[in-house]
Amino acid sequence: MSDATYSALRDASGEPMKKNLVRRAVVLTFRKSLEISVKNLQVRFLRSLITIGSLVLATAFLSFVLVNLNVAAGLMALGGEDAAVMLTRAGFDIDEQARTVSMSPKERWIIILSLLVCAVGIVNAQLMAVTERFREIGIMKCLGALDSMILRLFMLEATMQGLTGATLGAVFGFLFSMAVNSLRFGTQVWTTLPWSAAGLSLLIAVGVGAVLSLVGVLYPAYVAARMRPVMALKAEH
What we know:
Blueprint: H1 3-8, H2 19-25, H3 30-43, H4 45-79, H5 81-89, E1 93-95, E2 100-102, H6 105-132, H7 134-142, H8 147-185, H9 189-192, H10 195-225, H11 229-234
Helix pairs in contact: 3-8, 4-5, 4-6, 4-8, 4-10, 6-10, 8-10
Subcellular location: Cell membrane
Family: Belongs to the ABC-4 integral membrane protein family.
Domain ABC3 transporter permease C-terminal: 110-228
């Protein structure tokens, strides 16, 4: 806005509004954005569970595969050729000369497909959430909310959902992997496991889940941010 436009705006008492006051009126602090995002998730708890559930499943499988590799690497480092034979019979892809364990092509494709399915589910759930909130978004924009504010709210919600679902999935995948390998190879897997590598695997799984949640919400958030207030208020649900 130009200075002439600001001088034309008047407050309730009829006095011209100051330029800095208008700017302050449209600012939404990060703390307030976080509060609004938390309340939105609480109101739409069941809808949030769909996104979180899909993230838990995808991240748990990724964590399970990565921790399996860590367990196999620990057994290889301790057991030598006997461990290599045992791991090969268990279905691991073993390079005996390099004494390394790698992920099979089949596992890679399954992980990629599971993450793609998860991403599609997140986009679908977020688009449905945007449709349900047409009127709410229109009211917020009529009250002065900027496109960046709407985008920030959706991104904050996606971040909280992503971190929650990815963390739960990583933990579940780790526990399930350790339980399965304990049954196959005995309790020694707990002592031979390279914990630093396992921790890195969990961080990778959480990071992938969080990024997946953010990527899945980008398009729905853009649609919500670019929505015209009049069209949002006129929308029927």
